Amino acid sequence: MKKILCPICLSSKYIKKIDSDYICKNILNREVIIKQKKRKTNSGSSNNTDNTDTVNKEYCNTKLMPRYVETTKMHKVIIFIVGYRNHGKTVYNDIMMASIKNIYKNEIWDGYAQFVNQKAEEHYSEIPKWILNGHCPPSTQIKDPVPIVYRMHNVPMFGDIVPMFYDVKGELFEKLEKISPGAKYLAKSPVVLFLVSLKDLIENNNDDELEWQDKLHRLLQIFDLGVCRSTKQELVVILSKGDKLFDIGMDQKVIDYLNEGDIDVYKFDDKTNKKKTSKNVLQYIENMKNISKIIRNWLIENKCKEFINHADSVFKNVEFCIVSSLGSDPIDNKMHREIRPNDPKRILDPFLWMIEKQARKSFF
Ligand SMILES: Nc1nc2c(ncn2[C@@H]2O[C@H](COP(=O)(O)OP(=O)(O)OP(=O)(O)O)[C@@H](O)[C@H]2O)c(=O)[nH]1
Ligand SMILES: [Mg+2]
Ligand SMILES: [Zn+2]
Does the beta carbon of 197 lie inside 6 Å of ligand 1? Predict the structure, then answer.
């Protein structure tokens, strides 16, 4: 049987079945205890009884719900977005979750989405509230995240997928010394997501003297220094707030692609939909690749070559995409009406990149 992964400490070694529950008994301060033990042994102490007395063991103690345990064999997709404060991470995560719901409700995909942990159930009741009044959620305060875990049934061509959304405050990515609460999740994820609002990078010059291209590069510098990876990962750079990118002269083909991207574009009507090679899904992914190339060239033409060179050397593969979670620009973080299912644009492109890279391998 495949091992169960604890979504908090990302270890699968210490899950214990206690009565009918599965509980993670990983010791979080294990290293401190081992160090203490070694010190005692080296000092030649004759007392060989439990040397760990002086340190209390801190267990992870995460309780895994039965529905989560059932997803053990399914593809987990870690969605842990790296991005500065106010660039749109939380809004993107929430609108993506709402869109996942809409995609099944409106029969764009034939299946269902299901909550797999308590956090998902709790969070899901919060999303429609702000979507209905159009008032964006406040800045995130969390640094140690508990993921929201879903199960998506019957995703065209990919089967069942289990996305795990971790949302943290952007401050973590502003300074190297702050990144550590996110580092272990980012290190484990085969695909890393950067989310940047170019318009905000260009406009917010009050914090420091850096030019926007250098601020973009700085995000990568902090990731590269702060996250200890053992293998080469893939990177997807999401350009957020795409509705504002026309103003900065983004390539018209990218803007057109964005504007034509409401939720119906994910209707991959195709007789082979459920099989491993849906022509329409492959065509959609091909189109995403073209857009990625155009964005890459636009960035190179706009003096971001250093960022691209660095990213190309750190990652196995670097792709770009564009989204608009709200579809238009709010005034004082408030939309003039509720957000409707067709307002978000190309909202699932980053998700398709993720599953294309993380889940597809085992389907082919
Ligand atoms: N024009 C436009 N504005 C957006 C969009 N998405 C988010 N915003 C604006 O950006 C603000 C910040 O978005 P958040 O998602 O809270 O940003 P964040 O990256 O989570 O920020 P922290 O939690 O502080 O790290 C929102 O309150 C909106 O005003 C979008 O698609 N288009
Ligand atoms: Mg946030
Ligand atoms: Zn754990």
Answer: no
